[in-house]
Design goal:
3-stranded antiparallel β-sheet, alpha+beta, 9 strands, 92 residues
Length: 92
């Protein structure tokens, strides 16, 4: 388990790593995550629970592209480079 900079436990997945958590497999099943060659296209609102009911307008920032080795922080709805993840997050 990992801790974010505020000390809160977070669910993370390193893009391209195995085994994939259930939430990652579900995201691939509903095409919220899609491979584009060696990059992963991520529908960012899907990372936040109840995103349909929050009323946020995502506009043009709805997708982000992650590279293998980047880390998805599901709890905070962020995509981080490996370097940013290693410097900001700690292992519990």
């Amino acid at each position: 388990m990992f801790l974010d900079p505020k000390g809160k436990e977070v669910e993370v997945w390193e893009i391209g790593s195995e085994p994939q958590p259930d939430w990652v497999r579900e995201a691939f099943a509903i095409q919220a995550f899609q491979w584009l060659d060696d990059n992963l296209r991520i529908l960012m609102p899907i990372l936040q629970r109840n995103w349909l009911f929050k009323g946020d307008c995502w506009g043009y920032g709805i997708y982000q592209i992650g590279k293998k080795g980047d880390v998805i922080d599901r709890t905070n709805g962020k995509l981080l480079s490996q370097r940013a993840f290693q410097t900001k997050y700690t292992v519990k």
